[in-house]
Amino acid sequence: VQLQASGGGLVQAGGSLRLSCAASGRTFSRNTMGWFRQAPGKEREFVAAISWSGQTTYYVDSVRDRFTISRDNAKNTVYLQMNSLEPEDTAVYYCAAQSRDFVVNYAYMRAPREYDYWGQGTLVTVSS
After folding, report:
1. Residue 69 host element (H or E)
2. Do β-strands 31-38 and 45-50 pair in parallel, antiparallel, or remain unpaired?
3. From the first residue on, what is the mean pLDDT of each consecutive set of 10 residues in the chain (128 residues)?
4. Counting beta carbons within 10 angstroms of the beta carbon of residue 68, is it exposed (0 to 12), middle (13 to 18) or buried (19 or more)?
5. What φ, ψ does residue 112 adopt, rounded to 5°?
6. pLDDT tens for residues 88-99?
7. CB neighbours of 105 closer than 8 A, spacing ≥ 6?
8. What is the CA angle 53-89-116, rounded to 5?
9. How many CA atoms lie within 13 A of 75 on its CB side?
């Protein structure tokens, strides 16, 4: 099983990026998928998660009105649209997927330990 994240890069503050994470090796149409990030010198933190159906989403407060998570189960892919980017958003962004089916509980969806598959990360750098 592989999760391949892409779409990172260098952008000025106020700009936008769209991250993609394509899964291969198994389908995740019944599973929560999420995005996490890790800034230099900081711990990995939850950014956003989306339920298997796409109907339930959660965000960390700092990105709630700027980022949008979505998924295309036919393509086995999850996306993170990031708008109004700030220098504080600079980090390596990781996509992840759970193996437990049909999870919609916030505590489970935001906890890194509940994710069984991780991508390699894509670097997002926001300049001021």
Report:
1. strand 67-72
2. antiparallel
3. 97 98 96 97 97 96 97 98 98 97 93 96 97
4. middle
5. -55, -35
6. 999 999 999 999
7. none
8. 40
9. 10
